[in-house]
Write a structure and sequence with these properties.
Number of helices: 24
Number of domains: 1
Strand content: under 5%
Largest sheet: 2 strands, antiparallel
Helix content: over 70%
Radius of gyration: 23 Å
Number of strands: 2
Distance between the termini: 32 Å
Shape: globular
Structural class: mainly alpha
Order of helices and strands: HHHHHHHHHHHHHHHEHEHHHHHHHH
């Protein structure tokens, strides 16, 4: 991504660059009005293609060849190949972790340990720790995040609240971990080193996570926990349906350990999927048999049961209706809608990049502000807009990083100011856009639509305001030292 080429088009006006965005937002708003929560099932994907078609017409009007646009689309889709494979493996992992009892065990013990009043704040802390250790908000959501959403549902806490807490903690850890890809990318774009970037970023990030924890604590204290379902009945139902044992925690511990040891996500998720399958055969043979649809458990039926859990819809029936909704998995097949959304978003983002609209919008924002605060505001605005248009958090860091580096130097600002602003606005807001790769991923993995968790992802939308507040008050704005 550091070698990403920024395409400029001097023929393109700012109004022409904004036209596809305005039409896209209008069509998406109407589509959500018509379909509601079902808009992500397919209709929004086609709307993204319509937005791409409008951008292509604007490009052709400004003498951009169709081949140039398609090259950028192909480049964008290629850049998401890793994310698509991760999504497929997460679907597979969720299937084997369900039938092996790993996720039910997390919910079983979590219901006994986590107090409903402080559950949301505890979820933020748990996800922050895991994400710092792994350097990945995606891995955090795919492991403990899924379990925490399940526990929250069992406690009667709205899934959007729990998902917001999970995402807030996961993205705090993702920002502060030296193993995170975005935490390495931002200083590389700005021209500073990794640990200077992390130390300087902590100035705005730590107050933001403290405010987030306070908000979730207040929400927890105001929740009516008396209306929560009787957990004793749920615990009995889980005990009856699964063979619950602490040994099952070896599977998630193994996956997290692999990633901490810098194992790439795909091999780690594959190991997690295979371990889940092995533990399913050892601890839950009756469930494997039921999923296979056979009468006797043998090599063929065991193989079929595991493959069904990995690839297609799987459900484990219990005596509790609430748990029946929790103990379902779509497998790899369940991730296809999210993958479809990402591919269509990359078409729109690729064409917008190919016609020079992205650089035109960022350039217009850069010219609009002349003060130091205006430069920070312009950077934040560019990152947020690129997350919504390019649909990729890496581009939301790379494009402003390259375009604004000289402007920050000219203002006498140290490069860590830019790297911190890129993370405070580019990394964290990506998950708030339904068609961004991050928003689509988190929604698909946690099973909670973006609109539902958006209002509760406090850390993610407070971060840009925090960095602007520090800039406005001139707090910890480091200057270049003249030699």
């Amino acid at each position: 991504m550091e070698d990403e080429k920024i395409i400029e088009n001097k023929e393109l006006s700012i109004w022409e660059a904004l036209l596809p965005i305005v039409i896209l937002v209008g069509l998406l708003a109407f589509n959500v009005f018509v379909y509601g929560d079902d808009a992500l099932s397919g209709s929004n994907q086609f709307i993204l293609l319509i937005g791409g078609a409008v951008a292509a017409l604007v490009g052709l009007w400004n003498k951009v060849s169709f081949d140039t646009m398609m090259e950028e689309v192909a480049h964008n889709i290629k850049s998401t190949s890793g994310a698509i494979l991760i999504l497929l493996f997460v679907g597979a992992l969720a299937g084997t972790w369900l039938i092996s009892g790993v996720i039910p065990a997390m919910i079983y013990y979590g219901l006994q340990i986590l107090n409903p009043t402080f559950f949301l704040a505890a979820s933020v802390v748990i996800c922050a720790i895991i994400s710092i250790a792994t350097g990945s908000s995606w891995t955090t959501s795919a492991t403990v995040g899924i379990a925490l959403v399940g526990i929250g549902n069992a406690l009667g806490i709205p899934s959007g609240m729990t998902a917001g807490a999970v995402i807030s903690g996961a993205y705090f850890g993702d920002k502060m971990s030296p193993m995170s890809d975005t935490t390495n990318l931002a200083p590389a774009m700005a021209g500073t080193d990794l640990f200077t970037h992390i130390r300087y970023m902590a100035i705005t990030t730590v107050p933001t996570i403290i405010i987030t924890l306070i908000i979730f604590t207040i929400i927890g204290l105001t929740l009516d926990t008396s209306a929560a379902p009787d957990t004793s009945g749920m615990l009995a139902s889980i005990d009856e349906a699964f063979n619950i044992t602490p040994w099952l925690f070896l599977v998630p511990v193994a996956v997290i350990s692999l990633i901490v040891m810098k194992t790439p996500p795909l091999p780690a998720l594959l190991v997690g999927t295979l371990l889940g399958g092995i533990f399913a055969l050892i601890f839950q043979p009756d469930i494997v048999l039921a999923v296979s649809g056979a009468d006797n458990l043998n090599f063929i039926s065991g193989y079929k049961g595991l493959m069904n859990a990995i690839t297609v819809d799987t459900a484990v029936e219990t005596t509790n209706a609430t748990l029946n909704d929790l103990f379902t998995s779509g497998g790899m097949q369940g991730m296809l809608g999210t993958i479809w959304l990402i591919l269509c978003a990359m078409v729109f983002g690729g064409i917008m990049d190919g016609i020079g609209a992205l650089s035109r919008i960022s350039g217009a924002l850069l010219k609009a502000f002349h003060t130091v605060f205006g430069l920070f505001a312009s950077t934040v605005g560019s990152c947020v807009i690129l997350n919504a248009t390019a649909s990729d958090q890496y581009l939301a860091i790379v494009v402003p990083g390259k375009m604004y580096a000289k402007a920050f130097r000219d203002k006498g600002l140290a490069p860590e100011n830019l790297s911190r602003t890129l993370e405070d606005s580019g990394t964290v807001t990506s998950v708030l856009v339904p068609w961004n790769t991050c928003g689509a991923y988190q929604s698909g993995v946690l099973g909670v639509d973006t609109v539902s968790y958006m209002g509760y992802a406090f850390f993610n939308y407070l971060s840009p305001f925090m960095t602007l507040l520090f800039a406005a008050l001139n707090i910890k704005i480091r200057r270049l030292v003249k030699k």
